[in-house]
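Researcher: We are triaging several targets before committing to wet-lab work. For this one, the compound of interest is flavin mononucleotide. I'm pasting the protein sequence and the ligand SMILES. What I need is the predicted three-dimensional arrangement of the protein with the ligand bound, expressed as structure tokens, so it can go straight into our comparison scripts without reformatting.
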Amino acid sequence: MSMVNHETTAVGTVDLRTVRDYRERARELLEPHLFDNMFGTDDDAIGRTDNSNRAAFESLAFRPRILRDVSSRSLATTVLGQRLEVPIMLGPIGDARRVHPDGELATIRAANAAGISMVLSMVSSVSATEIIEAASGPVWTQLYVLKDRAATGRLVEHLAEVGSAALVVTVDNPGIISKDVNVGRPPQDWGTLKELGILETLAVRRSMIENIDPAVTWKDIDWLRSLTQLPIVLKGIRTPEDATLCREHGVDGLVLSNHGGHTLGDQTGTVARLPEIVEAAGETEVYLDGGIREGADVLAALALGARAVLLGRAQYWGLTVAGEAGLTHVLEILRRELDKTMMFCGVTDLQQVDHRLLTSVVGDRFIE
Ligand SMILES: Cc1cc2nc3c(=O)[nH]c(=O)nc-3n(C[C@H](O)[C@H](O)[C@H](O)COP(=O)(O)O)c2cc1C
């Protein structure tokens, strides 16, 4: 049985003017249990909501500056030295064929069109080889450290060989959450793992979660560092102590993330933690995810020190509604909103952005 009814899709109609419009259309298209399992419900007792991440953004307000000649604006930045036309990346989201038959091929085509990069999930339905071939720019690949370290090592070597530009190691999911999001999709659809023959060697084939090693420590990060020349980014950092450890262990970047609210309940919201994480991270680049729904959110995250943001749910809603075209439109909406917010704030270049752009109830110590 198909999980998605694509017959009613429409892109660019008046109904689809915001990311939230895409969410509501996705809600209509997906079977309710799948939508709720992936994105959470408002009263979700096990904490899959993004309420705290949204509340943190909503507690921020801009301090717009005027008379600054905003006639031309640049939205471009770099991450690990790679150019992004917009400071947005598509974060790792497992198995995109759950919501659209083109899966991650739709994702990479939309990323190409927007001049941005994607982070390919380890449990993607399309293999890293195919995605990197289809990409016009760098692709980062996400990894969970498995109980089977030999398989993990083979995977890392393979990802480097096929041209991954960075390794994003997710460290906030030691094997509990999201068991039920694989509903309806057999794991043999995980492209890269299938290509490498790793699926056959996994202890548990039904769910990746049970193969992820909860015993992982910083020693394993050192091991990964010794294994590959690829830049390493840790995803799921939430404290300055761990941001400091990232720096000490030679990590190249970190993603401040609470897995979109899927992990430990978080009353703070990721953007509220940014200033202390950025301070502790030093030269290590900091990216943020969790709750990005508008262009203004992107500017606020950059003002608090993020180098770029990653999209989770927003990309999936675009894919659900209309595959590549839907995600391309979602990215265009965010780009236009970011551009407009910059214009109204008196900002022409992202390098000009700092905490003085914001006022907030998050903590006055960050505001001059
Ligand atoms: C349906 C779904 C699947 C996800 N799959 C992965 C994954 O395979 N690997 C990973 O590191 N994070 C995964 N995440 C977490 C996202 O990368 C990201 O941290 C989070 O969704 C960001 O919050 P947002 O959804 O509010 O943008 C997933 C999130 C969702 C909602």
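Researcher: Any quick observations?
Model: Confidence is low (pLDDT under 50) at residues 1-9.
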